[in-house]
Amino acid sequence: NEAARLQDLVDEMEVELQQKQQQEQSAGNQEEITRLRNQADRLEQQLADSQSLRRITEAQLREAERRLAGLQATITQLEMQLQQQTTGVGTPPPGLAPPVTGRSARTSSMGLAAAGQSMVSSQQGLPPGHHM
């Protein structure tokens, strides 16, 4: 029967066409999966980078806070010394006290300048919004 044979042939071709479409769709899905995986990998890397950057920034912030505390302690100490010198409280009568010159005076003022300089340089590395 010719009609039955043609019907079988059409059925076979339809099955073959469906299989081809499924293969193409599966290849397309595989491409999409690969693309999404690559995108996920990139996002994961960006997240890891930003987390390590945040840790670095937090470390810089802690260092700046530590330096600031040291600077404030030095300022307080210098203010107390200045207070003693101007009021004379706790200082020996004039003539008995050696003048504060030479190495010790230079060192303390240089130390203050160096501490101030390191504060400025560490603050420049901080992101906006992280003011002391």
TrEMBL record:
Keywords: Coiled coil
Coiled-coil stretches: 3-81
Region feature Disordered, mapped onto this chain: 82-132
Protein name: Uncharacterized protein
Origin species: Chlamydomonas leiostraca
